[in-house]
Amino acid sequence: MVMLTPEIIRQLRAALGLSAEAFGARVGVTGNTVFQWESGRRHPNYGRQVALNRLIDESKKQLA
Fold it and tell me: CA 32 to CA 57: how far, in whole Å?
């Protein structure tokens, strides 16, 4: 599992070309929550970390 820092979350969202709202919808949160993760004010709980790591795996497959 990848350690999810605010920068990694921001980079993942940018790599997927998604708005905060669309990115949040993919992992089951609001766009506001994504902004809070990216700013470091909040951190994803374990379930969301798993979902984010799945997105990382999917994005690696798309880039390969």
Answer: 24
User: Band of the pLDDT at 62, cuts 50, 70, 90?
Assistant: confident
Alpha-carbon span 40 to 38, nearest angstrom = 6
pTM of the model: 0.87
| Cβ count within 10 A of residue 24 | 20
3-state helix, strand, coil in the chain (%, to 5): 70, 0, 30
d(CA 44, CA 52) in angstroms, rounded, equals: 9
Distance between CA atoms of residues 30 and 45, nearest Å: 14
Cα–Cα distances in angstroms (integers) from residue 44 to residues 17, 20, 25, 62, 63, in the given order: 20, 14, 14, 24, 25
